[in-house]
Amino acid sequence: MLRTDGPETPSYEMSLLANGPSRRGRLPEQPREPVMTADTPRPRLSHGAGPVGSLIRLFSSVWCGIVLMVLIFAYLTVGSAGFLYPTGLNVFSRADWSYVLPRVLLDKTEMEFFSWWPFTTLIVLFIINMVVVTVRRIPFRLLNLGVWTIHTGIVILAIGSMYYFGTKLEGDTPVFRRHVAIQVPGVDQPRRLVAREGNAVDIDSPSGRYHFAIQDVNPDWPILTGDDKGKRTCSINVAVQTPTQQFIRQLLIGYPQYTEDIIPGKGRAVKSTGQKLLDPDIAMRLDYEPQQYFYLMDSAALYVRELGQRGWRERPIDGLPHYSNHIAAVDEIWQPAGDPIIEPDPLDIPVPAESANDPFAGLDIRVTGRLQYAPNNEAHWVPGGQNLNPIVGIRLADDSGATWHELAAFDPRSNHTNDGLIRFGWVRTQEEFADQARQVGSHLHVQVPAAGAAITIPIDRPSTDDFQQIGDTDWSYQLEHVYRNLQLPSGGNVSVAVIKFRGPDKEFTRWVADLPDHTRDVKEGHAMLPPDPALETTFEVGPIVSLIGGPAESELHLVAGAQQEPIPLEIGRAIDLGQNLRLTPAYVYTHARQEVRPAVVPRHEWRRNAGETFSRIKVVFRQGSWMAVRWLPFHRYPFNSDQYAVPGRFTFDPTVVTLPDGRKLEMLFSRKRAPLPAALALEDFQLATHVGGYTGDTISIRDFVSRLRVYDGGHWSDPFQAKLNHPASYRGMYFFQSEWDPGEMSYTGLGVGNRRGVYVQLAGVCISVAGMLFAFYFKPLIKRRRRLSVLESMQEHKEAAESPEPVAV
Amino acid sequence: MNPRWYVRFVDAAVVVVVGVLVYRAAVKPRLPEPVNEFARAVNVEPLEGIAIHDAGRIKSFDSFARTAMRHVSGRPGLNGQSAVFSYLDIMLDKEKYEAQDIIYVKSAIRPQLIRILEQMKENPQQVEAFRSTGMISEQTLRSPLMWQELNRLDADVIRTAKFVNLISGALMFSDPHELSTRLRVIPPTNDDPRHAWYAGEDLWGSSFLHAGESQSVQVTALPGMPGELAATLASDWSDLVDAWRAQNAGNANAAILALSQNLAKINPSLYPDARKLNLESWYFRMKAFVWNWIIYICAAVPLLLSVIYRWRGAYRLGIAILVVAFLIHTASLGIRWYLAGRIPNSNMFEAILAATWFGVLGSFVLEAWVRRTAMRGLFFLGSAVCAMVAMMCQHFMPTTLTSDIDNVMPVLNDVWLYIHTNVIIFSYALIGMAAVTALLYLRHRLGGGDATVAKAGGAGSLILDGSAARAKSFLKEESSATTGQVLDASTMVLLELAFVMLWAGLSMGAIWADHSWGRPWGWDPKEVFALCTFVIFLLLVHVRLKVRDKGLWTAVLAVVGCGVMLFNWIVINFYISGLHSYA
C-alpha cells in the first residue's frame, strides 16, 4: 500500500517515522528519496515535453488509475447486471420491475462482452497506468515492497489471464455408454443399436427381416446367479423378432458370459429349452460408443452429408449472432402476437466448405436469417388457395388490451374463438344464412318443480336490470355474469352463468355450468354447495355473436342475436359489442391456403436459460440458377442418427434438400466441434447418493461418477474417473462431470476444456495476496522497529550529550 | 463539537425508523387460532420425533412436516396448529380445510388475484384479508375464473410463473395422497443405506385416505419385515386414523404412542438416535434461534452508548450481553452443523448466519487487540448490529429465508465449500461492520466533527501505536486521539482485513471453479459483483491516497462497498440468477 500521510506538513519526527533512519544508530538528516504524498511538494518527475511527455504524465497519475477503476466498475456492473427499470406503477412489487442487459442488445455473451475491445482497452490502460505509476512514482524500497508486490502480482495475473483466455477451448460432449453390435446370419456388416430404450433397427437378411428393439435398460441390475451373484451392473434387454420367432435377449455390461434369452410369458429360455440362447446364430455384443469430438460453447456450425452416409462434414458458421432475430421479410415467419414486430434485418454469412472431402464443395451455402426462439414450424392461413375456404381474422379489444383470432368457417375446431363467444360461418344461400343466424345466443332453462313451471331465458349478456320473475312462480332471477370456456383444474372446459335467484324463503347465487356436474350454489360467503333442488337449471351455450360470410363473396355480416338484424361489416371498421368490447374484422380470405413458417414464441413464454436451444437459422443454397431455402432448428450435438436423441435434451431433426443433380443433401445446424485428444469411452456411470438412495431430488445425490477410458496407443486405457469437483485430464484436456441421464444412465455429459496459464494466474494471485499482507501488516511492523531504533539513538545522543565521558560503543 | 440544528433531527429520524421497523417486525398481525378441542387434547409429540426419509436425509417428522406445511401456508403449521398435527389433520380431514384460507400467496401476484376475487364478487372483507395476509382457500383457487387467471399467470414465464409454481407446490403439499406418499417412515429391513425408506402406505395401504369407507386394513408385508410387526404397525395406524376421524383424543394419543414406538423397532440399526431426532424437533421449536436478534439489539444499545459516552458500565454490560448472544449464535450453528452433517454455510439462511457469526468472532479477536485503545467497543458494536440485522431478516422473512435443513447441491460437496465460502462470507461480515463504523464517522462529520484521520491506516496505526511506542500513542484513551481518527482507524482496520480476505476468497473461488466448472472465471453475475465490491475497495485505497478529505471519502466508499455487497447478496441472488443461484 502506498503511504497515507495526512495533509499536514510533516514534522521532523513524522518524516523520520515515515522514512526511518538511513542506517541503524545514525540520525537521518533528510529524507533520502522523494516521498510520494498527496500534497507535500515533490521534485518534478522528468519527462519530455510534447505528446509523449503528456502521455507519460497522464499515466504517471494515480488519478488516471482511479478514473480507470471507476470505468471498470461501471463496465462490470452494466455488463453483468444491466439496468433495472420499472415496467408498472407498483414500484414496490417485484413483478413490476424488469431489466435490460446491454450486452444482449449488443448480441454478446458474457465471455464476449468482457473480452470485447472496450473492456480489454480499459484493462490494458489500467495495467500500463499501474506499471508506470509504480516504476516512476513509488521508490523501490523495503517499505514499498507491498505495493510493488501487489502490482506485480496483478500484472502477472493479467498476463496469465490473457494467455488463458486467448488459448481457451471450452465445450462439452456426451459420451454414450454402449451400443449393441448385432450380427445376423447372411449379413456381412454388424449393425449397431445405441443402448437406449426405444431404439430399434430392422435388418434384412436372405432368410427374411429381423427386428431388434431395445426394450429395457436397467442401470442397477443385480446379477441373480453364478459366481457374481449379488453384484450389480447395467442390463440391456433387446426384443428380437426373427423371421421365425420372438424372444428377448438380455445382455449385461461387463458379463458377456451371462447373456441369455427370455421367452415372453415363459421366462428364461434355459428353463424351457435347456439352452441359454434360443438362436445362437444371432450374435449380439455390447461395445463402447466412443466419442471423438467435443462441441464448443457459443459456436455455430452446419453439418452436411449425403443422405444415407454416416459421418458429418463440418462447415463452421462464423459470426452468427447469439441472441438477435434476423429475417428478410416481416411475413416469412409467424410473428409472435403481442410482441413488437420483428423487422427485416437479414444476415449474409457464407458457410464455405472447409473440409477437403466435403461432398458438396461446389454448393454455395449462406446463412441469411436467425430466430432466437422458434422451436416449431406452424401452419397458418394465407390467401391464394384453389378452393373456397373462408378465413376471417378479427381483433377483439377492450380496455385491458387486444387479442387476435383467426377463424376458419369450414373447420369445426377453429370456426369459433377459444371462449366460444364468436363463431364464423360461411353460407351459400339466404336460407343457410337464416339457419346460422338462428343458432346465435345462449339459453338458460329453469324449472321450478314445485310450481310445475319452466322457462327458457336467453342470456347473451349480463343484465343490469332488477330481478325478473320466473313465469308465474314466486321465484325471480338476475343474471350476473357469463363465463365461457373456463379451464377446469381436471382438464376440459366449462361455461358458467352466474345467476342470482330469489325465492319465497331464500336467496342464493347459482353458478350454472353447461356441464351439469359443475353447477354449484353459493350461499353465505363463498361456500360452494350442491345445487338446491328447489330449482332445476340447465345452461345451453351458443356464440353471442356470429360472423356470417356469403352468399356473395364480398358479404360479411354480424349477427348478435336470433332476433337482431344482421349488421354488415367492413374490413378495418370496429363494431361495438357492448361492455367496451370492440370487434374489428382485419381480413377475410375466401380462398385461403395453409402456409408453414417458423413461429416465434411470444417473449413472456420463453423458458429461462434456454439459450440457443430453440433457435433456428435460415439457410440459402445456390448452385447456378437453382436455389433452395430452409429454416434449420438448432441441435446441441450433431448426432449421427436418431438413436442418440434424448427427448427434452438432444434432438435429431435433420433437413434434407434435393440438389439439381438429384443428390440429397442432409444437414444439421449445431455447434463447432473440436477433436478430443483421443477417442473417449464411458466404461461406467455411477451415482453416489446420500442415505436412502436417489429419490428424484437432486439433493439426494452426493456425486456423479463417470468412469472413462481413452483409446491410446492402439488399446483402451485403464478406466479413470471424472466426478464433480474432480475432473479427469488427458493430454492437456480436462473432462468435467456436468450432466447425467437420470433414467437409464445411458450416457454422461462431460464439460471439456483446456486450462493453459492457470498456474500463472494462480502465481499472480498469491503474489498479490502476499503483497497485501506486507503492505497492511508487515510494513507498519518494520516502521515501528525503525521508529524504536530512532528513539533509542535519540536517547543515546541525549545521554551522550549529557555524559562527560564518551560512550563506549 | 458543534452540533448543527438538523443533526438532532437526523438522529431522531434514525431512532424512529429503527424503532418503527423493530416494532412493525415484532408486532405482526397474528392469525386467529381456531384450535379446537381435539387439537388441544391430542398429543402428537411422540410422532414429532419419529424418523422420516426425505431427499437424501433422515429428518424428524416434525422437521419434515414444518417444511411441508410451510410450502402450503408460508408458516410451519396451519391455523397456528403444530406442524405434525396440521400434516395429519389435512391428510385425514382434507374437506375441513378446503374452504379455509390456508394457502399462502406471495405478494407479487396478489394484485392479479385480488382483481379476480373482486370479479367473483367475493366478500370485501375476504378480499381485504387476502390483501394483507396473502392467505386464500384451495376452493377459491380452484374456482374456474381463478384457475383461468392462474393459468394465464403461469404462461408468463418471465414474471409470474415462479409464483404460480409456489401455489402449485402449496396445492401439492395439501393433497392427502401426496402427503401419504411422502410419509416415508418405514426403514428398509436390510441394512443397505442406499435403499429408500418405505412410505407408510406401502405397508398399510392408502384406503385410509377415503374417509367413510370401511376400514379393511390390507397389510402388505414389506421384504424382510416380520408379518407380526407389519400387522401391529398397520393396526396402530388404523387406530390412529379411526380415533382422529372420531376426534377421540384419548385413543389417538394411545395410537400415536404405539405407532412411534413400533416404527423405531423395525430396524434399530438404521434408525437414527432418538436424541438427534428430538434435537432437530427442539431446534425448530426454538425457531432456529432467529429471535437471537433481540439479544443482539440488547447488546448493541449499551455498546453504542459506551462508544458515544465512553461509559465503562455500558461497555461491560454490552460485552456481557454480546457474549450471551454469541453463545446462542454458536449453539444454533453447532446444532445445525450436527443435524445437517455438513458445514452450515450453503443456503441463504445459513450463509448470513455463518457470516455474522464470523463477524462477531472476529470482533472478539480485534477487540482483544484494541482493548486498551479508544477504538474499544466499535468492533463489538459493528458485529452486533450486523448480526442483529441478519437475524431480523431471518426472523421476519421466513418464507424467503427458510430455516429448513437440507442437503446441498451435489456440486457443493467439496473441501472448498469450507474454505472459499467461509473466507468470502467472513469478508462480507467485515464489510458490514466497516459500514457501521463508517456510518458513525459520517454522523460524526455531519455533526461538525473533526476531519482528522488515522494517517497510517487501520492496522498500521495500531501497530505503530503498539506497546513499545507507548510514548506517542495517539489512540490511547488518555491520549488526544480525536473521534475522527478513532472512527476512521476502526473502519480501516476492518476494511484492510476485508480487502485481503475478499481478494483471497475470490481467488479461492476461482481455484474451486477451475476444477468444478472447468474455468476459474466465467463472468457469472455473482462473481462479477464480488469483483465489483473489491473494485470499490481498490478505489477506496487509492482515493484515500489522493484526496484532501480522506476520512469522508473512506467512509462514503465503505458504505458504497457494503451496498454493492448487499446488492450482490440480495438482488443478484434473488433476481438475476447465475451459476451461483443455488448458493
Present the secondary structure layout:
The complex is a heterodimer of chains A (809) and B (583).
Chain A (H helix, E strand, L loop, with lengths): L11 H8 L30 H10 L2 H19 L2 E4 L10 E4 L1 H4 L4 H4 L3 H21 L7 H22 L3 E7 L1 E6 L7 E4 L5 E6 L2 E15 L9 E10 L4 E7 L7 E4 L3 E2 H5 L9 E6 L2 E6 L4 E6 L6 E4 L32 E2 L13 E8 L4 E8 L7 E8 L2 E8 L13 E5 L3 H9 L4 E6 L4 E6 L9 E2 L6 E12 L5 E10 L4 E7 L6 E4 L3 E3 L6 E5 L4 E5 L6 E4 L7 E2 L6 E2 L5 E8 L2 E8 L16 E8 L2 E8 L21 E4 L5 E7 L2 E17 L11 E12 L2 E2 L3 E4 L4 E3 L2 E8 L6 E7 L4 H45 L7
Helix pairs in contact in A: 1-10, 3-6, 6-7, 7-10
Chain B lengths: L4 H22 L10 H5 L3 H4 L2 E4 L2 E4 H13 L9 H10 L1 H5 L2 E4 L5 H10 L4 H10 L1 E3 H5 L1 H12 L5 H12 L3 H6 L18 H5 L22 H19 L3 H17 L8 H12 L6 H18 L2 H29 L7 H23 L7 H19 L18 H32 L11 H7 L18 H34 L8 H22 L3 H25 L9
Antiparallel strand pairs in B: 1-2, 3-4
Structural commentary:
- The complex is a heterodimer of chains A (809) and B (583).
- Chain A is of the alpha+beta class.
- Chain A is built from ten helices and 47 strands.
- Chain A is extended and about 130 Å long.
- Chain B has 583 residues and is mostly helical.
- Chain B contains 25 helices and four strands.
- Chain B has helices at 5-26, 37-41, 45-48, 61-73, 83-92, 94-98, 110-119, 124-133, 138-142, 144-155, 161-172, 176-181, 200-204, 227-245, 249-265, 274-285, 292-309, 312-340, 348-370, 378-396, 415-446, 458-464, 483-516, 525-546, 550-574, and strands at residues 51-54, 57-60, 101-104, 135-137.
- The longest helix of chain B is centred in the last third of the chain and has 34 residues, at 483-516.
- Classes of the chains: A alpha+beta (809), B mainly alpha (583).
- The interface between A and B is large, with 105 and 108 residues.
